Amino acid sequence: QVQLVESGGGFVQAGRSLRLSCVASGGTISNYGMAWFRQTPGKERDFVATINWSGGAHYYADTVKGRFTISRDNAENTVWLQMNGLKPEDTAVYYCAANKDWNGTGKLLRQYGYWGRGTQVTVSS
Predict the structure, then answer these.
(1) 39 class by beta-carbon count within 10 Å (0-12 exposed, 13-18 middle, 19+ buried)
(2) pLDDT digits 0-9 by tens, 15-36
(3) Which of 39, 93, 109, 112 is deepest in the core (most CB within 10 A)?
């Protein structure tokens, strides 16, 4: 029932910042753990960041720790990913995901039942 739509991707130079948005519709995500994943052609979809239902707990992949921040506003039914200090290796399609079965953080693909269609982030050298 819940649909997720990502936006905010684009083409940027290394060292710049982007903020991705994930807006949910068709139902509330206020009791769902949420996450961002990313994928490049020919590669597996990798975990990036996750946040619990209230926004009080976070977990990040080592590759983005200290550079990326995940946040949410349940009143807006929205999750964000602030990406600072972007590197060429951050280039990927970024996907938003909702854990309909658990309200905490999680980094495994199989935990997430709702997915957006992705937004492209390209970082040039």
Answers:
(1) middle
(2) 999 999 999 999 999 999 999 9
(3) 112
Distance CA 20, CA 33 (A): 17
| pLDDT, tens digit (0-9, with 9 covering 90-100), for 36-91 | 999 999 999 999 999 999 999 999 999 999 999 999 999 999 999 999 999 999 99
DSSP string, 9-61: -EEEETT--EEEEEEEESS--TTSEEEEEEE-TTS--EEEEEE-TTS--EEE-
> How far apart (Å, rounded) are the C-alpha atoms in residues 37 and 9?
14
How many whole angstroms separate alpha carbon 42 and alpha carbon 121?
16
| Beta partners for residue 99, in sequence order | 33
CA pair distance 96, 53, nearest whole angstrom: 15
